[in-house]
Model the fold of this input.
Amino acid sequence: MIDSAALPPPAPGLARRTAAALYRRPRAQLGVLLAAPLGWLVIAYLGSLALFFVSSFWSVDSFSGKVVTQPTLNNYAQIFGRDIYRTIAVRTVLMATLVTLTDVVLALPIAFTMAKVASPRTRGALVVSILLPLWSGYLVKVYAWRLILGERGVLNGLLAPLGLHGPGYGDVAVWLVESYLWLPYMVIPIFAGFERVPDTLLEASSDLGARTFATVRRVVLPLVLPAAVAGSIFTFSLTLGDYITPTLVSNTRFIGNVVYDFVGVAGNQPFAAAYAMVPVTIMLVYLLVARRLGAFEAI
Done:
């Protein structure tokens, strides 16, 4: 009879050896955990973005309509050489800037009230009211604004007794709808920024004789600026790439509308890719500036 105590212990399996090796290497553990999402990011997102950039140098044969993969700069020469495309790009950047500034002005008092003035119960109600529009569909909200801004809409019905008329459909409508759509993305970061401002700083500023405006300008705003820049990343980029709202509430053309037309109607995907590189480049520069201002730490 063989004594089982004299037998050597079984060799550990591959799973056990891997677990033991990872237990002694925390960085390896982190690498294994992030391998799948980072791999998906590199392949699905960065890979498609790289292909998107490469295809912007292709062209379409005018006779056959087929894509020619021979590299050329004709798409970019057309974009920067024709006034219409430069005008549309400038118009889009100006609209994104205007929407962002509007949301900052609206979000600051709302976020300050939520963080420093409201009671816990009121704060919860305000947070829900800010997040509630995000639960409804994008198209539902835009079509609701179409009903509000229409010739026989709610706004004109309210202004008619005063002898006034609403803006109707156009650039003002795009500004109003975009500002409404992206306001929650500005309020939440600024609200988080205000919550990180200690109340003792405000009390110390008041004890030193600073008035309310001086306290806001010298104490509050410098501390909340990174959070506002973080919120502006969302509002600016979302406005920069939106094409549905301008289509539904105006006849004005923006970058997104041109890209959509060349992809679907004109069938010129290389030119659409080249023109779409304009907002991508703008956002890359914007993100670099935001990083210098500490926005990524405030997200």
